[in-house]
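Fold it.
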Amino acid sequence: MPDEVAIDASVAIGWFTPTSDVDAKYCASILEGIIYGEIRPIVPDFFQIDVHALLKAHRRDKARFSAAELRAAAKMLDDVSCTYATMGL
C-alpha cells in the first residue's frame, strides 16, 4: 500500500519550475513516488486550481511557459490520482 503524503500547490509547482520555493529534490522525489505508486498524494480541495493559477502567473510574470506547455502541465495534473482532503468550512 502506498504511503499517503500531504502536498500542496508549492510542491506541484516544483515539478515544473526549478526555481520553486520548495526544494527541487524533494519535489522530484514526491513526483517519482507518485509515478511508481509508492506515494498517494493527499491534496487540498483547490489543489488543481491553485497549481494552474501559479503556472499562469509564472507564464505572465516570467514568460517561462508557452500555452502548449501549460496545457501539457494541466493534462499531467489531471492524470495524477489524488485523494482530496476536504477543508471543513
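The mean pLDDT is 83.
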